[in-house]
Amino acid sequence: MKKKVLSTLLAAAMVFSLTACGGKDEGNAGNTDTNTPASQEAPADNGGDAEAPADNGGDTAPADNGGDTAPADIDYGSGTITIWVAENVVDFTQTKCKEFLDANPDMAGYTITVEPVGEGDAAGNMITDVEGGADIYGFAQDQITRLVSAGALSPIVGDNASFVETQNDAGAASAAKVGDMTYAYPMTSDNGYFLYYDKSVVTDPTSLEQIVADCEAAGKSFYFEINSGWYQPAFFFATGCTLTYDTDDNGNFTACNIDYASDKGLIALKEITEFQSSSAFQNGSNASNATNFAAIVDGTWDADVIKGVFGDNYACAKLPSFEGSDGQTYQLSGFGGFKLLGIKPQTEEGKMAVCHALAQFLTNTDTQLARYEAVGWGPSNLAAQQDAAVQADVALSALAEQLANTIPQGNYPGDYWNLATALGDDVIAGTISTSSSDEDLMTVLENFQQTCISYAQ
C-alpha cells in the first residue's frame, strides 16, 4: 500500500469515487482563494490577445509516458488516481473528473479521488514524499524547479508538449518549463498586480507622473506597496535589472543573478524615492485598508472591494510607465504568477496515459472557462481568454496585459523578502530620499546586492 502524506490531512479529505456512469454533481460556486506572492524563469509574453488554435475539449487520445498519442488499443488498466487541488475547486474538479470518465469509458477502470491540498502545500508534500504524493496535483509556478529536482514531475513531450505550447499564453507555457523541457499543464494566468483607478480622477492611466498629478490635484491617494519584495521589483525590472536565484538538485540556493548596483538600478531607486515624495503616495496594496484613494496597484482578489469604492468610475489598466532620471520611458514590470497541474512519474504505461489525458481535460478550453465561471480563476488558455465573459472582466484583461511585461516568480530565499521590506521602509522613512546623492544611493544598491548574493553562498 502506498505511504500517504500527512495522514491527518488526508483523513479529513473530501474523497470522491468516480465511475463511468452516474448523475451530475454540482460545481463549487465559491470565491477564489486569495492570491498573493507565490509560495516563496523567462519573460512572459502574450496575455491573450492572439487567437488560439481550436481546442478539442479533451477528447484526444490519451498520451503515453513519452507524451505521444497512445495506440487506440492500449490497455489502460485499472486502479486509483489521486488528485490534489485547492479546497475551493474540489467540488468543481470532482464534477469534471466524472465528465471525463463518462466521455472515456475505456478508462473507467480507474477511481479518481480528489483531495483538498492547496498549491502552497502540494509542492512541499510532494518533495517530502514523492511516492506517497498525488498522481496529479496543482502547484504554484515558483515551485517547478524544486519539484523537477525531486523527481516529482513527469516530463511532458510530443503531442502533450504541443498542447501546452499552442493552447496557452506564452507566459504560462514558459512557466511550465525548466530549461527547454515542459513539466506541467497551465491552469491559470491570474496571479499578478496591475492598476485599478477611478476614471473620474485619473486622466491618463498609462503615465505614472500623470496619475500622481491627478491624485494630488483631487486630494486623493495612490497606493503602491514599495516595501514589498513582490511589488518593489516593478521599478527595477522596468529599467532592465535582474534579480533571480539558481538552485541545485536539493533546492539549495547556489547563485544570485542580480545587477541592482548599476546605472539602471540607480534609475529605478531614484524613481521610487520620487514617487514616495508625492503627497498622493500611500504605501499599501490591500484595498480593504485603503482610504480616499483614486488609484491602487493590487490584484484580482480585491476587484469586488474596489468596484464598491469606485462604482461607475471603476477602471483597470496595466501598470503605467514612468520617465526615468535619464529622460527615457520605462514600463513598470514585476512578477507574474501561474497555477500549474503536474503529473507524478508513473511505472504503469496505461495509468500514465490516463493521467495525461485527464490533465489535458482539466486544463482545456472548456474546463478553464467553466472554472472561471465557478470560482473566478483567470484562464491561461488562449481561446478561453477570448471568451466574451472573460474579455468583459476588466480586471483580468488588465492583468493579461501586465503579465506580458513581467517574469514568472521563481524561488527566492526567505531573507530576500525581509531585505526588500527594509529597503522600502528606508524610503518611506526618508532615510533614502530624493535629496540622497547618487553616490549614497549606489552604496545602498551595492549593499542590497551583496546581501542578496550572500543568501546563495
Explain what this protein looks like in three dimensions.
With 457 residues, the protein is of the alpha/beta class. The protein folds into two domains: 7-190 and 337-408, D-Maltodextrin-Binding Protein, domain 2, CATH 3.40.190.10; 194-333 and 413-454, D-Maltodextrin-Binding Protein, domain 2. The chain has 17 helices and 19 strands. It has helices at 7-11, 90-103, 119-128, 144-149, 158-167, 170-175, 208-218, 233-238, 263-276, 303-310, 349-363, 365-375, 382-385, 388-392, 394-403, 414-429, 438-454, and strands spanning 79-85, 110-116, 136-140, 177-178, 181-182, 185-186, 191-192, 194-198, 221-223, 243-247, 253-258, 281-282, 293-298, 314-317, 321-323, 329-331, 335-337, 339-343, 407-408. The protein has a five-stranded mixed sheet with strand order 2-1-3-18-6. Strand 4 (177-178) and strand 5 (181-182) form a beta hairpin. Helix 9 crosses helix 17 (438-454) and helix 16 runs antiparallel to helix 17. The protein is globular and about 75 Å long.
List descriptors.
disordered N terminus; 5-stranded mixed β-sheet; single chain; 457 residues; 17 helices; D-Maltodextrin-Binding Protein, domain 2
Secondary-structure blueprint:
Blueprint lengths: L6 H5 L67 E7 L4 H14 L6 E7 L2 H10 L7 E5 L3 H6 L8 H10 L2 H6 L1 E2 L2 E2 L2 E2 L4 E2 L1 E5 L9 H11 L2 E3 L9 H6 L4 E5 L5 E6 L4 H14 L4 E2 L10 E6 L4 H8 L3 E4 L3 E3 L5 E3 L3 E3 L1 E5 L5 H15 L1 H11 L6 H4 L2 H5 L1 H10 L3 E2 L5 H16 L8 H17 L3
Helix pairs in contact: 9-17, 16-17
